[in-house]
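call fold target=Aminotransferase-like plant mobile domain-containing protein
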Amino acid sequence: MGLTLDDVEHILGIPVRGLAVYTEDERTPKRLLMDFLGLSEEVAENAIASNAFKGYAVKLSWLEMNFKEVSETDTDERVVCCARAYLLYVIGCTLFCDKSGGFVQLDLLLLLEDLDKVRTYGWGSSCLAFLYRHLGYASVDKRALPNASSCSRPRVHVIFDPYKNRRQNVSDIAFYTGPIRAMSYVEPYLPDRVLRQFGLLQQIPADPIAPQRASRGQHTYHVVYEWTEGFWSSPDYHLVPEDKRERTPPGIPWACTDDYIPWLSVFSHQRVGCGLPPVGGRVQQGREEQVRVVLNVVQRALGDTGLGAVELRQALQDVHAILLPTFDTKRGGVLGGEVRCWVYDKLVDVSPCSCMRLTCL
């Protein structure tokens, strides 16, 4: 399950269709302040030199302090500048908020130059692209993740389609397939991976959009997807095909095609469970599971007589990936509180991530 354009439409109530939210204009922060907020060159330079600015990012509190009021005597230009500052403030507080400590990107002013044109942008799709990217950033920040010791396996009731009583049909834009964009962030949107959220029968999805470049380390996350203007400018030509929009049988919202589960068992993870608890908890059970998984990897490698050097190296890397996260090389013991999970015979990070890069369960 994951966030879709259907969610954005119902939760935020803002336009999803429209022009892509980005610009290729590369004006400097000083130039942006002068051209769109009406500051003099000296005032703009002093503002940028203060701690209210970090590169192209400006503090929301600075916008509020300097543009929160207009008076009867203000010129039309001043009123328009305050309107731009207010819209930038709202965007930074709602659509493009992150953990930066109350900053918003100043280059968004380029999209606010013509106030009559603001409504023509697809702010909903850009909000979703922004969220996808920052979920990716959060996936490498262990501080943003829960402690494994607090993991539990409660029985839950999954509501696949929470809006079915609020709409007759899902809007076509929710089935758009392709890249979405928020300024420099380009993210893939693949709704055929979560068809059950639209009340549809889950089928094997199409191949995902591959990034041009990608790297993810312990503390780094960098991914670049190609932006194809023709996709978003003509979304009706890039929808999930009609033959894949089969309604689920009444009373069976989790239904899927017969070939979906076998496909899922090969390409994704069906089960996610808690990782090793801290020392003093159910460590013995975790160790037994760890040994079982390692033996499975080794048996698969030994049973395939046609393995070459590359395959053997991959098998060793799998064993290494399973063992290393649970062993403290500095203290010589099992780690407690690591955010790890047993998933289909592998120990992996539990990372909040865009559902569009994953496959729905």
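return ok
The CA atoms of residues 276 and 287 lie 8 Å apart. Residues 274-285, 326-361 have pLDDT under 50 and may be disordered.
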